[in-house]
Amino acid sequence: MKISHSLVLFLVGLAMMLTTQSCNRNLTATMSDYDNFTNEDPKEIAVFRKTGCFGYCPIYRVHFYEDGRAIYRGQMNVEKEGTHFGLFNQRKMRQIIRKADRNRFFLWPDVFPVEEKEFLPDLSNTITTIRKGDMEKTITHNHSGPEELKDIENAFLELIESIEWLSVGGE
Q1: pLDDT in tens, 104-157
Q2: Read out DSSP for 95-160?
């Protein structure tokens, strides 16, 4: 049986559209989602945090939970101050955790730079915590971290930017 080129392209396009829609379905949080969330004890799998500096660095933290929910708390120098709730793409989180595994995140030093005398107190720190099974690792990155750590941090930043945040109050 011969299938026309146009039909194949149409079917491939349709499959891509349905896949994209299913990946993004239900990723818009509602107050009902948040109310349910606050009445549960969800398992936290990651925390991404930016600290202040001697300037106007953004200060915030994002908590990610196993079921695809996240809490953002913006403190200063951020577009979204206060507490925000959102849903994230769990497939993207699994990719971040796999990347961390491949790059031996759980074996890296707890602080970069490793030498305390090289730590610069006027720089913002990026603090990344990942939990996987019984393992938990937190790395404070001031500067001079490995490229693989910067890749993991950038993946978290992209995930945070992709979330539709719902404001749920000040803090």
Answers
A1: 999 999 999 999 999 999 999 999 999 999 999 999 999 999 999 999 999 999
A2: HHHHHHHHTTGGGS-SEESSSGGG--TTS--EEEEEEETTEEEEEEESS---HHHHHHHHHHHHHH
pTM of the predicted structure, to 2 decimals: 0.82
Quote the domain boundaries for residue 90. Answer: 28-169
Q: State the burial class of residue 33 (Cβ atoms within 10 Å of its Cβ: 0-12, 13-18, 19+).
A: middle
User: CB–CB of 87/27 below 8 Å?
Assistant: yes
Segment 67-94, tens digit of pLDDT: 999 999 999 999 999 999 999 999 999 9
Do 42 and 112 meet the contact criterion of CB atoms below 8 Å apart? no
105 within a domain of the structure (yes/no): yes
* Separation of alpha carbons 24 and 127, rounded Å: 28
Q: What is the count of structural domains for the chain?
A: 1
136-161 as b/e: b if 16+ CB within 10 A: eeebbbbeebeeebeebbebbeebbe
Supply the CATH number for residue 125's domain: 3.30.1560
Residue 15 forms part of a structural domain: no
For residue 68, tell me if it sits in a domain: yes
**Does residue 130 belong to any structural domain of this protein?**
yes
